[in-house]
Amino acid sequence: MLKNKVVVLGLSGGVDSAVSFYLLKKMNYKVIPIFMQNWDTVANNDIRGHNKKIPDGCESNLDYLSAKKIANFFHTKLIKINFVKEYWKYVFKNFLLQYQRSYAPNPDILCNKYIKFGFFKKYAFEKFKNSYIATGHYAQIKKTKNGYFLVAAKDKTKDQTYFLCNLGQQQIKNVIFPLGKMYKKDVRKLAKKIKLPVWNRKDSTGICFIGKRNFFDFLQNYLPSKPGKIIDITSKEILGDHIGTMYYTIGQNKNLHLAGQKHKYYVCKKDVNNNYLYVCQQKLKNKYLLSNKCLLKDFNFINDYSIMHKSKFLKVRFRHLQKLNKVLSFTKAKKNNFWELEYTNTLAVTPGQYAVIYDRNICIGGGVIEKVYEN
C-alpha cells in the first residue's frame, strides 16, 4: 500500500486499463482517470487509409467514448488532455524519418518514452502533487537498494516490457502496473464478473494511438510511394515490381505480389539507393536471413550497466514476444553511442527495430538495430 492515496490512471478505453481502475479502487486509492488524445485526423492531414466502419475513421473518438463509459461506471469524472503536437514531434516525425530510410521503426516504444511516461507523467505530477501514475501495461516494477527494476509480467504471452525498454529510473519511479501479476484471461473474467461495460471490447491493434489501418494508404498521407524492381538475390532475375522498399520488412513472405512463381520468396535485402528489393527462395532463407551479430545505436540502460554486464543469463529478443535468444557477447563499440551484440543464430533481424536485452526476467533495456551482420 502506498502512503499517498492518489493515483493518476491513463485510461485508454480498453479492458486492461478498466480493470486496472477497479483494482486500484479496491485497494482504496483515489483514482484520477485521464484520457490522452494523441492523434487528430484533421490537424495531422490524415485523409487516406481509414477504417470505413469507424465514424470519421478515427479510433481515438471511439476510445474516448469508451473511456467515458468506464469513468461513469466508477462514478468518476474523466479528464481529457491533448498531446497531439507532442506525439507528432517526438514520435511520428521519427516514425516517418525511419520509414524514409526503409527501416522498420517501433513507434510504441517512443510513445511510452515521450508521451505516456514523459508528458503524461509530468502533467500528472504537476497537477496532482505527490501522486503516482498507473497504466494497464503487463509489466512489473521491483524496488531494491540498487534502484527500480523493470520485470516481465507474470503472463508471458502478454508481457509488454519490450515496449518499455527505453524508460529510465525516474520514469518508472512512482509507477504502478496493476496487471503485472495477472493473466489476461483472468482480466477478462474479472471484467465480465463485475459487469464492466468494456469487458468484451477487442484489444487495440496497429500503430500506437492511430489504430489499425490500411498501412499503405495511411503512409501515402505523408510519404509518396516509390515503385521499383523486385530482384532474386541469387539469379539477379527481375521477378516483379514493388510499391516502395519502405513498405516491406526483412523476412516478409506475404503480399509480395509475385504471381506465377514456382517458389515461395522472402524479403532478404533492401537497396535504398537503387530502389531495389531483393528476395530469396524459401530454401535459401537460412543463408540470407540468418544473423548472429548486430550493431545497436543509443542503447538505453534502465539500470546501471555495471549491475548487469557480468551476468551469464543475458538473452535478447528483436520483436515483441519473439522467442528469447541467448546473448553471446554485449560490448561497447569503438564508435560513440554504439554497442555490438552477438547472439545465437536468429532469422530476420531488421534494422530500425529494437533489440531488447533481459537478465532472466529483468528487462535491462534496448537499442535500435543499426546494422545486421550475416552469419
Mind explaining what this structure looks like?
The chain has three domains: 210 residues, HUPs (Rossmann fold, 3-Layer(aba) Sandwich), CATH 3.40.50; 63 residues, SH3 type barrels (Roll), CATH 2.30.30.280; 86 residues, Translation factors (Elongation Factor Tu (Ef-tu), domain 3). It is built from nine helices and 17 strands. The chain has a six-stranded antiparallel beta barrel with strand order 12-15-14-13-16-17. Helix 3 packs antiparallel against helix 4. The protein is globular, with a radius of gyration of 22 Å. It starts with 5 loop residues before the first strand and ends with a strand. The mean pLDDT is 91.
List keywords for this structure.
25% helix, 3 domains, globular, five-stranded parallel β-sheet, Rossmann fold, six-stranded antiparallel barrel, 375 residues, alpha/beta
Strand order of the largest sheet: 12-15-14-13-16-17
Q: How many domains, as an integer?
A: 3
Q: Portion of residues in helices?
A: 10-25%
Structural class: alpha/beta
- The CATH topology of the largest domain turns out to be Rossmann fold
* Main beta-sheet strand count, sense and barrel state: 6 strands, antiparallel, barrel
Number of helices: 9
- Which percent range describes the beta-strand content? 25-35%
CATH architecture descriptor of the largest domain: 3-Layer(aba) Sandwich
Distance between the amino and carboxyl termini:
50 Å
Question: What best-fitting shape do the alpha-carbon axes yield?
Answer: globular
Total number of strands: 17
Q: Helix and strand string, N-terminal first?
A: EHEHEHHEEEHEHHEEEEHEHEEEEE
Highest CATH level, the class of the largest domain = Alpha Beta
Mean pLDDT: 91
Radius of gyration: 22 Å
CATH superfamily of the largest domain: HUPs
